[in-house]
Each structure stands twice: as C-alpha cells, then as structure tokens.
Description:
By secondary structure, the protein is an all-alpha fold. The chain has helices at about 25-35, 45-55, 60-95, 100-105, 125-130, 140-150, 150-160, 165-170, 175-185, 190-215, 225-235, 240-260, 280, 295-325, 330-345, 350-355, 360-365, 370-390, 400-425, 440-455, and strands spanning about 10-15, 20-25. The chain folds into 3 domains: about 5-160, no CATH class; about 165-260, no CATH class; about 275-455, no CATH class. It is about 65% helix and about 0% strand. A hairpin with a 5-residue loop joins β1 and β2.
Amino acid sequence: MGQASRYWTLVKLGSNGRSYTEAIAVARQFFQAQFPDLEDDIPEGKIQQQLWQIRQHSSHPPDQFAAELCLRCFISHQVEQVCIQLETQFGDYYGFTRHDLFPYVLDDPGKAGSQKQPGGYQPLGLQILQKFDPDRASLTTWTVRLVRQHPELNQFLLEQGLCMLSDWAILNDTTQKKLRRVLTQFHHLTEIEVQQSSLLLESYHAIYRRDRILQGQKGQCLSPTTAQLQAIANQMQTLSPSTILARLHTLADRLRQQRIATRGSVPSNYSLDQPENAALLESFSTESDDPSDAQQLEFLQAYRQQFLTCLDQSLEQVIRSRQQTLKSPKDQSFLRGLHLFYCQSLSMTEIAIEIGLKAQYEVTRLLKLKEFRADVRHKLLDGLRQYVRDKAKSYLDLDHLNHLDQQIEVALSEQIDALIQKDEAKATTPKGYGSRSLLAQQVCRSLDQVLGSTTS
C-alpha cells in the first residue's frame, strides 16, 4: 500500500508560514499493528472504515485516541492538498499562494483527543471527523468540501476577489428583499429591471428549491437541469430555457459582485474611476485637479452609460456581421458556441460536443475569439471617439479640445484595451468561480435577444 505514512505523519504549520510533516509515534505503532501487511494494496476506504469503527466503538480509550490520530494525520495531508489546488486554480489570477491559506486551516497540534483546545477552539481536523459520515462520502471528499467551506478561509478569498460559492448557491440563498437592495443600491438598476429580476428569482426558487426539498438534496447546489430550466421558462412564459440560463448567470454575477465588494474587495464590473482609466478623466480637467469636481462627475455619469450603450451596439453589429458571413448551419453554430462560451463558461472541448463538431480546434476556428474581440474594440473605439469629442465641447473651448484630441484617443484606447484584456484573462480562469467580465456580461445580453427570438 502506497503513502501509508499519511496516517502517522501530521502536516503542521511552521513558524515561517510553510508546512512541514511531523511523525506521530503513537499513530505509527497503532497503524502498523492494525495493518501489518503494508505491501498489500489495501483500499483506502477499508482503512478509513476500520479506523473509524475503532474510534467510535472501541472500549479501549488509548486505541480510540490512536485511531483518531491516524485519521487526523490523513486529514491534514488532504487539507494541505486543498490549499495547493486552490493556489494552482486561482492563485496567479487572484494574487495568493498556498502559504497564505495554510494559517487558516493547518491548525491541528496532534494532541488532546476529541476535546476542544484551550479557549474553546477545536482544530479543523477534529471538526471534520465529528461531521464525517463514511456512508455518505469518502474522508477525502468530506475534507475537501469542509475546507472549501471554512469561514475564515472564504473570508480571505473574498478579500482577494474570489467568491467560492457557485451561481446556484448564491441564487438559492438570496431573498427577494436582499435582491432588491443589491440591484437598487449597489447596481442602481431601474425599477423595471428590478421587477424582471425579482420575477426570475421567484420562478427559480419555486422550481429549484422545491426540487431540492423533494429530492432531499443537501450540500452543494448543482446546476439546474434542462427540465428545471424549461419549468422556469414556462413560468416566465415569454423566455426560452437558454435565455433563462443566461439571465440566471447574469443575476448571480451581480449578486456575487456585491458580496465581494461588501466583504473587503473590489467588484469586477466596470468603473471609469479605476486607476487604469484615469487618463480619460484627466483629459477633462480644466482648472481643478480634484476628481470630485462637479463637471467631471457629470461627465463620468453620462460617459458610463454611453460606454455600455456603445458596447452593446458594437457587440450587436459584430455578432450580426459574423453571423451573416457564415453559411447555414454554421451561423447558428456560431451563435450557440458564443453563448456556451460566454454565458455558460464551457470549454472549447465541451462546446464541440454540444454543437456537433469533432474537436476543440474546430470550435476555435468557428468562434475566432481573438478576431471577435478585435472587431468589437474597433467598433467601440469608433463609437466612443465621436461621443467624447461632442460631449467635451460642453466643458472645453475648441482650441483646448483640438490640443487634447490625441490624448483622448490614447485614453480611450487604454480603457478599451483594459476591457479586452480583462475578458481574455477571465476566459482563462477555471469555470464556475468568480464573476464574468463586463464584455462577457454584455455579450450574453446581446445573445439573449438573438437566441431568445430564434428559440422561444
């Protein structure tokens, strides 16, 4: 049996913030007595079941404690692996390493049995064991689940901008009151938009929550099934299942952004006030260098809305143009593929299966995402350039405006390039976590109209 030492070596946190293993003599002696034939390939589940039974039912307290130590040692190795996996999946993008995560979860001293430690704190390994049910899941699965749900660890990840909850969990536990507050106070949506989102969430709860209760589901919120999406679409009456799915993702994105922003990080949605966009704001400084100057704020407010309007128009033009250049049925495959990539976060391989292509490279050739983004950039820059110049006439004299033409061009280019780069970066992150880029959200809005009209 390989890696047997995981049952008698405990992963601990060193004073330098790094992990190290410490051999526990009591655990090793006990484990080798229970499983003397170490060369045999004993199934992991059988080992854990036997140790669990001894811990729970042995009449000999030293054996109970030794069996518990073996399990805690195993858990500590799994905890370390979860931190490594989180670093591998998200570390580069969100700016953390495994060493940032270790202090939150590597806290087992390997002593004191099942009682709480001084101060009332119980090590995570003991918490996992107390909740472990071998009939429901393996100890590895149980550990991964509880580490990823660890409150302090999740708070740290939130502060880095990573919300580990799935879209479906966020939607499942959001009340109507909270939804209205987030959409009105945080996203500043119109009353009509809030009402539409409220109806969508109400239908989602009516179908998705009902099925979870009837089926006795607990823990992870799985993606809604095709039947559930159809049932929600039937309640909404005017929307197709694919449109329902896209709008549920968009709604969850908005809720996720608010959670991240209110718990110590910055929402990923677009803001002209961010540092990389400062050049455009500085172009309109007249006598004041204060960003809160009334004229600048007035311009920012109008510009934000125009930016989204121009982006929507650019996307619609590019999508329609690309669709028209493709012969049937490729035009519909393109729309469907774009929807699966941006709105459902499927990989190219998964998209190939969904739209009936043979391989990933065929999807790449069909979507041509690099060209797609370049076309959107060109259209967006053209649309904004004239708007900004016209708007600036209200704030600047003609000589000043002509002098700033090149600066405005550079500032707009920087801002749009940042939008495109963020979309490219988001597209490379693992699916299911983090909010989608602004470009992705607007692509889904554009596709809602196209796909909704063809599939409803």
